[in-house]
Design brief:
The chain is an alpha/beta fold. It has a single domain, classed as Vaccinia Virus protein VP39 (Rossmann fold). It has helices at about 5, 15-25, 40-50, 70-80, 95-105, 120-125, 150-160, 190-215; strands at about 35, 60, 90, 110-115, 135-140, 165-170, 175-180. Helix 2 (about 15-25) runs parallel beside helix 3 and helix 6 runs antiparallel to helix 8 (about 190-215). S-adenosylmethionine binds near residues 4, 63, 65 and 94. S-adenosylmethionine binds near residues 11, 37 and 65.
Length: about 220
């Protein structure tokens, strides 16, 4: 069982949560806030309760297969904090399927927190949501650390391809980027394919290393 399933706590550290709050509360972000991957809703709860009423609209995207009864746990966590889960637009499904629909519906977001599946191919696809990020809006990526090379690779590649974004902070394993102005459309299919290739290579490298270790012992 994931610890957050029992504690209902955020999966970001205290210092990362502080950095998140400082960044979003220092600018008036009134448009939709999106969290991709919510675990037990701990970070969601902290961000929502940090806002004075009326808070901006919150959207959550998750497959809800992280631990048993995950959605019920998230709703309990919110209710305990005085938040009615019905006030949140909770979308159940894979983030890239939901991204396609959101793009068709021409949605707009002021804040996007990417913390779903950490494989390079998944993170790259999640970054397509930034096509709907308004200028001045923030996109945050969690678990930017060597344990998750896919997050590092996708973040750095994204920054290189999109000079209209600036890195405003890197705290612990949390990276926060600001979209300074509109640029070319973020994350083409070529980028998505590059993510698939990187992830495949990484899997092959890991299994090769495992075999080598077994042969040596
Ligand atoms: C690391 S946890 C999120 C932690 C949470 N943001 C927090 O700060 O407490 C990852 C979450 O991503 C979700 N997830 C994984 N793959 C997904 C996908 N393809 N689409 C949507 N959600 C996904 C999992 O169900 C899980 O809830």
């Amino acid at each position: 069982m994931r610890p957050s399933a029992l504690t209902l706590a955020p999966e970001v550290s205290e210092e990362e949560l502080k950095a998140l709050k400082e960044s979003i509360f220092s600018v008036p972000l009134r448009g939709k806030h999106l969290e991709i991957g919510t675990a037990a809703g701990g970070t969601l709860r902290e961000l929502m309760t940090g806002y004075d009423e009326p808070r901006p609209p919150f959207v959550v995207v998750d497959t809800f297969e992280y631990f048993p009864n995950q959605r019920a746990a998230v709703e309990k966590n919110l209710r305990d904090a005085g938040i009615d889960p019905a006030d949140i637009d909770i979308r159940e499904g894979r983030s890239w399927d939901l991204c396609r629909k959101a793009l068709r519906d021409r949605e707009k977001f002021d804040f996007i927190f990417i913390d779903g599946h950490h494989g390079a191919n998944y993170v790259m696809k999640d970054l397509r949501w930034t096509r709907m990020l308004s200028p001045g809006g923030l996109v945050c990526l969690h678990d930017y650390k060597p344990d998750f090379p896919g997050v590092i690779w996708a973040t750095e590649r994204f920054l290189k391809q999109n000079p209209n974004y600036e890195k405003i902070t890197h705290t612990g394993t949390l990276v926060i980027l600001r979209k300074m102005r509109e640029g070319r459309q973020e994350v083409s299919w070529k980028e998505v394919i590059a993510g698939e290739v990187f992830a495949k290579r990484l899997t092959m490298k890991k299994s090769l290393n495992k075999r080598l270790r077994r042969t040596k012992s």
